[in-house]
Write a structure and sequence with these properties.
Layout (H helix, E strand, L loop, with lengths): L5 H15 L2 H23 L8
């Protein structure tokens, strides 16, 4: 197995990430947005619960 220096591995990883684009960032933003909407809806709708005493 060939030994590659850490700096070479890091630059290779950075160039691969640059070629990949914003796919992962967009995926994370969408997941956070959906979870935030669900949490906001739950928070707002829980106030409409009726208390049957």
């Amino acid at each position: 197995m060939e030994h590659t220096p850490a700096a070479a591995w890091l630059t290779e990883a950075a160039s691969a990430a640059a070629q990949q684009g914003t796919g992962n960032l967009l995926r994370i933003v969408l997941i956070v947005m959906v979870l935030g909407c669900a949490l906001t809806g739950w928070f707002l709708l829980r106030g409409y619960k009726r208390k049957d005493d």
